[in-house]
Amino acid sequence: MTTPFRVAAIVGALAAATLALSAALVPGSSAGFIASVKNSTDTAATAPFFTCAGALANDSAPALFVLPLNEASNATTATDTDSGAYPGTYRGSMTTSTSTPQACSRDTGGAYVLNGSTSYVSTATSFANPQTFSEEIWFKTTTAGGKLIGFGSSQTGASGSYDRHLYVDTTGKLVFGTYNGATKTITSTAAVNDGAWHQAVGTFSTAAGMSLYLDGTLVASNSTYTVAQNFTGYWRIGYDSLSGWPNAAANGFFTGSLRFASVYTAVLTPAQVAQHWNAGR
């Protein structure tokens, strides 16, 4: 016959053994419980798209170049952080601002501030007739007008041939266009000269035509625009001629701040565009 005292002793022994086993299963633990620790920054869980730099470096899009445009004031070279083969050259006044908010709040470095009269970047290398490409840039402005990024026949000054543009028009809207005997453009419905940071992406190919994305979302497209002007030229950021283009300002210089100018040799997918945008939020 088992006494009540014997039952209590057995139960107590089993409980003690369970606590000892739990402690043994937790390396370095000296207590019979496990604490939950929360990582509020969540940096590991969201890699590689936690920063804009990470998103551009780690997705599968074949980049021609990636220019973060975050060098210190008075820099002369815009570093290509993709292959390093296609840096840009800062022209005119080069000023960097570290004031917040930045385009991509978790990325290091400041933003390139353009004065609207002398500031721009051009690639050091020329390229022959890109017909399939995507171009992407982050920008902030309160001015209606100015070139964001595009392709021109001249490395400096105003080009004689110029197309493949992303620009802000005189109504404050975002425009993407190519030229093939006439200008072919698509335009956002919303104005972008509101002083906030925006992401602009234009994609183009002979197979799919032209698409324009604003802040991660497709805002305009035309599948019949499939041929761009045939010439060899340079990628230009912040300035080139816009003469003859719809609602273009007489002054092609951009006034405001720029960050992460990139060109790709393929059409970015909607998912890739959205990932790049989300990396900056």
Structure characteristics:
single chain, 281 residues, alpha+beta, Jelly Rolls, nine-stranded antiparallel β-sheet, eight-stranded antiparallel β-sheet, 4 helices, 15% helix, 35% strand, globular, disordered N terminus
Detailed description of the structure:
The structure is a single chain. The protein has 281 residues and is of the alpha+beta class. It has a single domain, classed as Jelly Rolls (Sandwich), CATH 2.60.120.200. 15% of the residues lie in helices and 35% in strands. It is built from four helices and 17 strands. The strands form two sheets. Strands 2, 3, 6, 7, 9, 10, 11, 12 and 16 form a nine-stranded antiparallel β-sheet that branches. A hairpin with a 4-residue loop joins strand 10 and strand 11. Helix 3 runs antiparallel to helix 4. It is globular, with a radius of gyration of 27 Å. It starts with a helix and ends with a helix.
What is the compact description of this entry?
By secondary structure, this protein is of the alpha+beta class.
The main pleated sheet reads as: 9 strands, antiparallel
- What is the domain tally? 1
Quote the distance from N terminus to C terminus: 71 Å
Number of helices: 4
Q: Would you tell me the structural class of the helices and strands? A: alpha+beta
Summarize model confidence as the mean pLDDT: 87
The secondary-structure element order is HHHEEEEEEEEEEEEEEEEEH
Low-confidence stretches: 1-47
- CATH arch. level architecture: Sandwich
Basic shape? globular
Q: What top-tier CATH class fits best?
A: Mainly Beta
